[in-house]
Write a structure and sequence with these properties.
This protein has 93 residues and is mostly helical. Helix content is 44%, strand content 0%.
Length: 93
C-alpha cells in the first residue's frame, strides 16, 4: 500500500521518509517517570526507555510499586514482557 502512495504519479511522492524513534536515555526516562536516583535507573531498566511503556508509568511511582500494580493485569507491557516475574513474590519451591 505504501508503495502505491509513494509512486511517481501520486501527490505523496518524495514526502514519505522512514522515521525511527530510538529509546529514551536515562535522564529522559527519569524525567518522564518523575523519578530520581536508583528509582530512575530501575524504571529505565524495566521499560528499556520505550516511550510507550513510560506512558503507562504513573509519575513518581517507584519501580516495585508499579510492577506490583501492573504485573498481574493481563495485557500490560510488564506482564507481556515478563518484567514482573521477579517481583511477584516468593517462589513455591
Amino acid at each position: 500500500m505504501m508503495r502505491r502512495f509513494t509512486a511517481y504519479d501520486q501527490p505523496f511522492y518524495g514526502r514519505a521518509d522512514n522515521l525511527v524513534l530510538g529509546p529514551l536515555n536515562l535522564a529522559e526516562t527519569a524525567d518522564a517517570a518523575g523519578l530520581a536516583g536508583s528509582d530512575a535507573v530501575d524504571a529505565h531498566l524495566i521499560t528499556g526507555g520505550l516511550p510507550g511503556m513510560l506512558l503507562r508509568w504513573p509519575s513518581g511511582t517507584p519501580a516495585e510499586d508499579h510492577l506490583h500494580a501492573a504485573g498481574p493485569t493481563p495485557g500490560t507491557p510488564c506482564s507481556r514482557t515478563g518484567g514482573a516475574a521477579g517481583v511477584a513474590g516468593p517462589s513455591n519451591r
